[in-house]
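pipeline: protein-struct stage 2 | run 1193 | DUF2946 domain-containing protein
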Amino acid sequence: MDDIVKQALAKWPNVPSCTGWLMLDRRGNWRMRDEAAQAGGTPGTPIRHEALLGFINRNYDADERGQWYFQNGPQRVYVELGYTPWVVRLSANADAGGTLALQDQAGGAFEPAAVFVDEEGGILLTDGSAPPRVAVLHDHDLEVFSDHATLAEDSMSGEFRWNNQVVLPLQAIRRSDVARRFGFVPSPAAAGA
């Protein structure tokens, strides 16, 4: 968390939180949701300002109930999640013999410990932290993923080869079970943050 945010929290500790105004979409884009977007149930307008994106990413965290938020100075802005709290991009570095790398929407490295596939073909990965972070793979990277995976005929099992060192079995998961299983709240507004 930024020092300026910590100072604002100390100076104004009782600023009410807000919900519904910020979304992390399925592709890792931060979106501002004005009243019209909230009323219409649309994702809102993508945030493109690099400094603001950096500020959001540095001050993004979860509370004890599994609700993700952006600490905007003294105000906690709860985040609507398009799927999971993290979205990762997968790349293969051609200069390094095809070495794979995963990076989350905040720019941090993500080391996979387990891989899941949902009934819609979405790929989810968890890391080795405690509790584990769960991230959905950006859909533009499914081809890179498939280059390093073997799928069974049911498309819900198989294995993923991570940098030719680790073979991770693909585990089936229902999309409707993801939030409960990994302990996060996809819509703090609906949960009454």
